[in-house]
Each structure stands twice: as C-alpha cells, then as structure tokens.
C-alpha cells in the first residue's frame, strides 16, 4: 500500500465546524443540580458545546474589541454574543458567507440578541422617556432628543449612524437574526426601565408576549435557511413584580422555545428574587440566559437562581476605562503609578503571565497621544478582565460539580467585596 501524495489527501480544516441539520442539533443536558435552582450542564449547538454555567464574550459587531479570535480561544471563551441591531445592515453579507461563524472567524457557538435593548436605549417607549443605564451611544450623538416609538408591530426609531428613521419589530428581528445565523437567537421584546410603573410594565409585557408568538412563527420559517438549525429563546420581562414575572414565565414556558432569556433592568437587591420567580416557573430542562450582567456578585447570585449563561460588555468596557479585576476586588489603575505589582497574583491570563505590572499598564493607558501604546493597553487589559470572568465561571462550574458551590460563592464574594458584601457599582 502506497502513501498518497499530500495533494491527494482531503483538506481538513481543524477549525471548521461540523454542521448538523437534524432537529437535535440544539439540546441541553443537566449534569448536576444544586439544592436550590442552580445547575451545571452542557448546551449542545450546531457549532459546538457550551459547558455551563458559562460567560459569553460580547462581540457586538462580530468581534470583541482589541481581542483576537486566537486570544478568545486562549482565555477559554466558549461562545460569542453579537447583536442583531448592530449587524442588521451587514446581515445579507453574513448570510452569503454562510453565517456568523464563517463571517466572523469565531468557529464556536454564537448567540445574537434581538436589538430591542439597543433600540429602546435610543429613545422612549409610548411617549415615556426611557432612562436606561446604558446610554453610551446616545451620549456621543447629537440625537439624544430623538425618540423611539413603540407600536403594536415593533419599534420605530431614528438611527444615529445612518441618519434615517428605521423600524424593527419581531418579524424584522427574526429575519435579521436568521440571516446572521448565530446558533441561538433572542425573541424580540420590549425592555422597560426602572422608572416604569406597574401599569406600564403590564401593558409592555402583554406586547412582549404577543411579539414572542410572532417571533416563534417567523423564526420557524427561516431557522434552517443557512443549512443548520438555529434556536430561539423567549425573553422574560415584567419588571420587579412577582405576579407579572411568574405569569409571563408560565406563559412563555409553555411555548415552544429552545431556552429563555432573563431580561429587565434590575436593582442589585432585587435580582435574586426576580430570577427565582422566573426559574421556579420555567421548564427545568431548557437553558436560561441572564442578559447583560457580569459583576461577580450578579453572576454568582444568577447561578444560584438557575441562570446557565451570561453576557456583558462590562469586562472589556471597564478595562478600557482603566478598571481591571483582581480577586481582592476591582482595581482602578489611576493611583498605581510606577507600581511593580501584578494586577492579580493568581491570574493565569497571558497579560499576567507575561509579567505586566499595574504601573506599566497604567503608563500605557495614559498614553492617549500614542495610539499604538493605548491600543496595546486595551488589548492587555481586555484579555485580563475577560479571563477573570471566564475563570470565575470555570471555578463556579467545578464547585457545582464537586458539591462545594455555596462555600466557593461565599469565599469568593468575601474576598472580592471585602466586608461590605456589595460591589458598590
Ligand atoms: Zn490576568
């Protein structure tokens, strides 16, 4: 038997995902349960598995700022979350290339959110001012006064980037997300703010539930368009009211979603209770994603209350603002001039392994005129902060599997927040 010439061998690309087209390409298995609602498990997707609890790194436009795909693999990232709103104008190109995995170069599991959050952040709902915490886009534009308007079919809004009016509803969001082709999509929902009262939340929730039904119907028409099964999570709103939260969890829980997004603007003190109401009503065998939170206390409370996956822009955004994480609490680099301390002695990220000190990082961060140095800082600090959160998730998962989660949670929080037990953020 002769050895074939190299050119005769079939070309195998290790990073190329194996795509499945069966209905079983998405599934969730629970490996271990805590005494309460928390659990460790595995989410199977067409582009690979996510071992939960897990943090999804946010690559809003298909890439994590200042962090390469190689870096993401190196720090143990399992999945990337991108945004349907920000990618909507590129969605035709993304579909033509076979979906988000091929287009972005991230070969692992992906998730998109519906864009509802971004659209609501642009303006107001039903004539009411939406006081969102996250108004980064708005503060940088002269269009702050321009409003988004909620209608029965969706949200009409002014797009400050392309400078024209646009519209997204459940139908549009599903079509956009199915062209982008992440493994997991979010139903289109209306996010209310902390300032909205019970009556408005009730009204908005009814609309979100109608949109959930439309999302399911439209998604079903397009979920196989790219050759693999794309999954859909229903999103739970309902503010801080137990009756609204439980009712919507029962209603959406009875619908044919693959999993659930836990949405809302939360006060820190209310988070655990609200998540408990949702998780107690939702089907146990479907995964739950807590949208947009990543402080360690929020993550650990979320895990306790049954959330399986998380995402947030905070680790990379805070890194760029000079705030880096350590086991003894977050560190603002400002006062650490000339310091030879590492950010965190126990961190295993490439930045810390290479010996970058707080003083060196601070100097790069202060190099506002030298973009090369500044961007090097953004890279080093983003890698560190993401690894810190990913490592927290890995340790939480091991602790659940070992039956030591409560001890792990208590000792982590005690060290991170000191005696106050609060992040103060
Ligand atoms: Zn590090």
From TrEMBL:
Coiled coil: none annotated. InterPro entries: ArchSynthase1/Queuine_TRR, TGT, TGT-like_sf, tRNA_ribo_trans-like. Keywords: Glycosyltransferase, Queuosine biosynthesis, Transferase, tRNA processing. Residues 38-417 form the tRNA-guanine(15) transglycosylase-like domain. GO terms for molecular function: tRNA-guanosine(34) queuine transglycosylase activity. The keyword Transferase applies. Its EC number is 2.4.2.29. GO terms for cellular component: cytosol. The keyword tRNA processing applies. One of its GO terms (biological process) is tRNA queuosine(34) biosynthetic process. Pfam families: TGT. PANTHER family: QUEUINE TRNA-RIBOSYLTRANSFERASE. This is tRNA-guanosine34 transglycosylase. It comes from Faecalibaculum rodentium.
